[in-house]
Amino acid sequence: MTDFPNLIDGEWTMGDEQLPNINPSDITDVVGMSARSGIEDMGRAIDAAHDAAEGWRYSTPQQRFDVLDAIGTEILARREELGRLLSREEGKTLPEGIGEAARAGQIFKFFAGECLRQQGDSLASVRPGIEVEVRREPLGVIGLITPWNFPIAIPAWKIAPALAYGNAVVLKAAELVPGSAWALADIIDRSGLPKGVFNLVNGRGSLVGNHMINHPKVAAISFTGSVETGRGIAQACAMNMKKVQLEMGGKNPMVVLDDADLETAVGACVNSGFFSTGQRCTASSRIIVTEGIHDRFVDAVSNAVSALKVGHALDAGTQVGPVINGNQLAKDLDYVKIGREEGAELVCGGERLDLEHDGFYMSPALFIGTRNEMRINREEIFGPVASVIKAADYDEALALANDTDFGLSAGICTSSLKFASDFKAKSQAGMVMVNLPTAGVDYHVPFGGRKGSSYGSREQGRYAAEFYTTVKTAYIQP
Q1: Which family is annotated (predicted)?
Q2: Pick from 118, 273, 374, 459: CA 20 to 30 A from residue 380's CA?
């Protein structure tokens, strides 16, 4: 068992209260004890970041590159170890955990390169003899609030650009997964980064997160989590004139047309809906299938879902791990009950499983005969639950896909270039996949959605500069 302390101004501290980190695959396994801080620790972290921000602001591109490259190199070298810790505390399968750790390393490597690729503009003024420069500058202290479902990748894709563009950082990671945040902070702390530039504070979002959001020394907040919490953060940031970036979930559609390759469609839908136990904001829980392929697809996908092996995240052969904790499991099972009460037909799964280890296991649930207005098709469940909606044709399928309060990711399975092109153009989502799962995106391109899914500028890739910098226009008369 390991302690998972805070990192404040280059010093590790456990604070006055600790919280056990429980393995959802085996609740008798305590991964470690995490610091649980109050507003005093958060205040000290913000002061440290504020004091360190000025020096890091004027660091050279080479200094920033060296730090981020060293972080990425160590993460990649230790990806199996980090992935095992991640899977043990979060519950995604070991291959998924290792893959996520590798992605975090790649993100830091990408933004190391961005340190050397930062650009500006030199323009002639409309007035004679005057030159104009446009450049990007850091904001100062960035507050990051990250979720439990991607406990190393999401912190990485927020921390890396924040540091690359010259900002100081305070990270408030999810309390359910302190080990991954601690491991990442430990690597960052040993990278050569000046003390105080990066700080980690563990604690309740309602306490330390709220203090960070409202603190006058914090220039911007980047948050990934629930819609309800995100809306509250947006309001608070508006009142305090802070820059804000929100990623808040989805109810993502996957359209399967009559001309789709059945094997490809089933694979994409099973991956999208049930891998990572369905605990992905990009998961496709609404499968919209046209009439001509509907019955064949339902038979094939129900067989595939029923065959998924649920088990301990670290066991070889496990395809679906546990739900993160008891509260989430109860919520998922409640949605199964709601779906049946609404008239949907449960063709497989939807039951709590008692396995060798005492964990939060649930058999993947698939509904058919559903309507888009059902709660199971309107509300984000965030678990291994998906439903099939029948559509008459492509036009109705597109309308159903767009009929949602969310707009993060959308997919279509078809062999028609016409329908694929039309769907890419008309889908009201920030990310569109053709013959691919809706979950799973590259680290060098923008991530984000529309409607209730996202607010503010995009994350990842070169577009991250839009959030983590501000633009300065300077006029010069030589």
Answers
A1: Belongs to the aldehyde dehydrogenase family.
A2: 459
Torsion over CA: 106, 111, 112, 118 (sign): positive
> Is the pLDDT assigned to residue 337 strictly greater than 80?
yes
CA-closest candidate to residue 165, choices 103, 118, 98, 102: 118
- State how far the alpha carbon of 233 is from the alpha carbons of 100, 244, 400, in Å: 27, 8, 30
* Distance between CA atoms of residues 210 and 224, nearest Å: 14
Q: Domain check: are 123 and 165 in the same one?
A: yes
Question: Taking Cα atoms as reference points, which of 268, 286, 281 lies closest to residue 447?
Answer: 281
- Same-domain check for residues 223 and 316: no
Mean pLDDT of the chain: 97
Whether 346 and 290 map to the same domain: the answer is: yes
d(CA 139, CA 245): 13
Question: What is the per-residue pLDDT for 442?
Answer: 95
The span from the first CA to the last CA of the chain, in angstroms, equals 64
Q: In terms of domains, do 173 and 314 share one?
A: no
The residue type of 211 is H
- Domain holding 133: CATH number? 3.40.605.10
Please say whether the beta carbons of 25 and 17 come within 8 A.
Answer: no
Q: Which domain holds residue 115?
A: 2-248+453-476
Q: Total domain count for the chain?
A: 2
443 within 8 A of 110, measured Cβ to Cβ: yes
Alpha carbon 410 to its chain's center: 16
Q: Give the type of residue at 184.
A: L
The residue annotated as part of the active site, out of 74, 89, 90, 247, is: 247
Interacting residues of 373 by C-beta distance below 8 A, sequence separation 6+: none
- As given in the structure block, the two tokens for residue 78 are 């230790």
Crossing angle for the helix pair 178-189 and 79-90, to the nearest 10 degrees: 150
Residue 459 known to be catalytic = no
Neighbours of 407 (CB within 10 A): 22
Instruction: Give the integer Cα–Cα distance in Å for 164 and 313.
Output: 34
Q: Using one digit for the tens of pLDDT, what is the confidence trace for 25-45?
A: 999 999 999 999 999 999 999
pLDDT in tens, 423-444: 999 999 999 999 999 998 999 9
Whether the CB-CB separation of 21 and 178 falls below 8 Å is answered with yes
200 near 171, Cβ under 8 Å? yes
Give the number of other CB atoms < 10 A from CB of residue 38.
16
8 Å CB contact between 426 and 394: no
Pair 15, 145 in one domain: yes
